[in-house]
Amino acid sequence: MKYKAIIFDCDGVLVDSESITMNVFIELFSAYGVEMSYDYAIKTLTGKAFDQIVEYVEEEYQITLNEDFEKQFRQKTFEAFKNDIQPIDGIKEVVSQLKIPFAVASNGPMSKMELNLKTTGLYPYFEGNMFSAYDLQAWKPDPKVFVTTAQHLGMQPSDCVVIEDSMSGVVAAQNGGFDVMVYVGHQEEEKYTSKGIKVFKDMKELLILID
Length: 211
Fold this sequence. Notes:
The protein has 211 residues and is an alpha/beta fold. It has two domains: 5-16 and 86-209, Rossmann fold (3-Layer(aba) Sandwich); 18-84, Putative phosphatase, domain 2 (DNA polymerase, domain 1, Orthogonal Bundle), CATH 1.10.150. Helices cover 47% and strands 12% of the residues. It has a six-stranded parallel sheet. Strand 4, helix 10 and strand 5 (179-183) form a beta-alpha-beta unit. Helix 1 (18-30) runs antiparallel to helix 4 (69-84). It is globular and about 50 Å long. The mean pLDDT is 95.
């Protein structure tokens, strides 16, 4: 086996939450006169922490979001997650067959991870091995959430591979000394492959890639 442990990102790697999240952002931003396409949102916002997205949008569009914007966002996304969230195709088959330790490390809050993993039936696989950048107050591309996860698993970064779906996550993994692979799903591969980053489109391929 090439690696001793796997660290998964959550959104876009374990659960198909990115489309839900982006549609909520687009809806809420429209109330401020911001017209943002879905493709643009995916391209520019994916992988960013909530505060990073707010900072980017306020600066880019010269607006000030209300103090209760995050509360609105959390309420709308959590409602949508309960109804529409799905696991990434093939992920249950992968985690049920893994013979090495694994965990999840996300930029999102723990409450969001717990909701989405429970709703999709993935929670039993990750219970006790879930780490949030919010709890550490250090968001990707800071590698702290990955380093902390590896320490919890009793591993060095060189023992692990990180599975990501965003450039900020890739940079965080690289900054921490981890190997990283990107599950591209429906993303363009070139932005990763042009930088020499290994990608895969079918989650079931992961079992072969780590062997």
